[in-house]
Design brief:
Layout: H1 3-17, H2 19-28, H3 44-58, H4 62-81, H5 83-88, H6 93-110, E1 118-122, E2 128-134, H7 141-154, E3 158-165, E4 174-181
The protein binds protoporphyrin IX containing FE.
Protoporphyrin IX containing FE is lined by residues 1-2, 4-5, 74, 78, 82, 85-86, 100, 103-104, 107, 111, 114-117, 135, 137, 140, 143-144, 147, 151.
Length: 186
């Protein structure tokens, strides 16, 4: 994954636990990179090792770390670094979710080696949809949950997200139920 992902993990850890803890995590992960370059592509193994080591050192389950990382990605990394792109994604939560399937095609213009996830929205109503998430990468469902929660906060919209069908024997991708309550117009 592009360096910006590892950089964002670093930022999240340093924000809550400080640089010393981050250095310990890198050591435990056996990742010998001083500074991640945002627009350079790194092996996915590095990201998985960092998240795994963070889980061990912080004593927090991987899923919890991925959820926190998803929220941080939307509320800090994406909003601060790519504000224009996030604004172009939609003015409300349902609008943004409806545009999600096309979102990374714009990202890919800046990051040509991007291997993005694929999203599909189905069963769309005024207050819910099912989000189908396809990726060749394993174990990132909790990251998607965090991303959704971050979007709910960004749009100040009360929402819930639940993994209904996990990727596995029954399905080749994850399916989430997303519901929301639009703030009243008054
Ligand atoms: C401007 C904002 C965004 C940028 C710049 C961005 C960029 C990226 C990058 C660089 C990766 C790593 C993949 C790679 O390097 O090959 C990635 C992965 C991912 N992105 Fe985004 N992204 C943005 C917003 C979002 C949003 C809003 C969502 C969903 C709500 C999302 C969902 C994901 C997921 C789930 C992955 C994990 C990769 C996978 O599933 O295979 N991203 N994105």
């Amino acid at each position: 994954m592009y360096g910006m992902v590892n950089k964002a993990v670093e930022e999240l850890v340093c924000l809550h636990h400080g640089e010393e803890v981050w250095e310990k995590i890198k050591e435990r992960a056996r990742v010998d990179v001083d500074v991640f370059i945002s627009n350079e592509a790194y092996s996915d193994d590095i990201t998985y090792q960092l998240v795994g080591a963070a889980s061990e050192i912080l004593g927090q389950p991987t899923d919890e770390i991925l959820i926190a990382f998803g929220e941080h990605w939307v509320l800090h990394t994406a909003r601060k670094g790519y504000g224009e792109m996030m604004r172009a994604g939609g003015r409300t939560l349902p609008e943004f979710l409806g545009n999600l399937p096309n979102f990374h095609s714009r990202v890919a213009m800046i990051f040509p080696k991007l291997q993005p996830p694929r999203f599909e929205c189905r069963d769309i109503t005024s207050q819910s949809l099912s989000l189908h998430y396809y990726s060749h990468r394993p174990g990132l469902a909790s990251f998607v949950i965090g991303l959704m929660q971050g979007l709910g906060k960004m749009f100040q919209t009360s929402m819930t997200v639940r993994l209904r069908i996990p990727k596995g024997d029954v399905s080749d991708h994850d399916v989430f139920d997303v519901t929301w309550e639009m703030p009243s117009a008054t």
